[in-house]
Design a protein that fits this description.
Blueprint lengths: L1 H20 L9 H4 L1 E10 L2 H6 L7 E6 L5 E9 L2 E11 L5 E6 L4 E10 L4 E10 L2 E10 L6 H13 L7 E3 L9 E2 L1
Antiparallel strand pairs: 1-2, 1-8, 1-9, 2-3, 3-4, 4-5, 5-6, 6-7, 7-8, 9-10
Length: about 180
């Protein structure tokens, strides 16, 4: 009886810890369908770098491919001044499909990445919890296979970002490269 009670309490605690995470992951995630070219349509974050650089940000192209060991190689190309700059990241798969980890050697940060929802051929909503010695932050990305998305998808991105505790000032629909106007939500 005592062992059964401890088992039940242990399972309840484990469930509570999982629920504490609070960020969902795509049901029946299929990693191979996530690969290919994406455009960053939306970005939301409460980090200091985002607040400082928000006015300079534009849409970028991201290519996702699977490595030989089943992780994800993520290469983003974004405009910086008059040039394009590339950033490569290796997302390490975890035991939970659709969830990855990434350590940034440049910034000394750890990233807990969740593919929240996707239909693979139109959009993907990705949430990241970032931990550094100086604190933590949240980032939400909206990817699209094309340079435009429906108002419903943009609204879903905004709604989900708010659910993660981000304010309207921390949510940005990225302008296309070459567009001068910023569209904020």
């Amino acid at each position: 009886m005592h062992a059964t009670l401890l088992s039940v309490l242990g399972l309840a605690l484990l469930g509570a810890l999982h629920a504490q995470d609070g960020v969902p992951v795509q049901t029946d995630f299929q990693q191979d369908k996530l690969t290919g070219r994406w455009y960053s349509i939306g970005l939301a974050s409460n980090s200091n770098w985002f607040k400082e650089k928000k006015h300079l940000m534009k849409m970028c192209t991201t290519v996702i491919s699977t490595t030989a060991d089943g992780n994800l190689e993520v290469t983003s190309t974004y405009p910086k001044g008059d040039q394009c700059e590339k950033k490569n990241s290796l997302y390490i798969k975890t035991e939970q499909p659709g969830r990855f980890s990434y350590n940034s050697p440049r910034w000394g940060s750890k990233h807990d990445i969740h593919v929240v929802e996707t239909n693979y051929d139109e959009y993907a909503l990705v949430a990241t919890q970032i931990s550094k010695s100086t604190g933590s932050s949240t980032m939400v990305l909206l990817y699209s296979r094309t340079k435009e998305l429906s108002p419903e998808r943009l609204e879903r991105f905004t709604q989900f970002s708010r659910e993660q505790g981000l304010t309207d000032e921390e949510i940005l629909i990225l302008p296309r490269t070459g567009e001068s106007s910023r569209r904020e939500r």
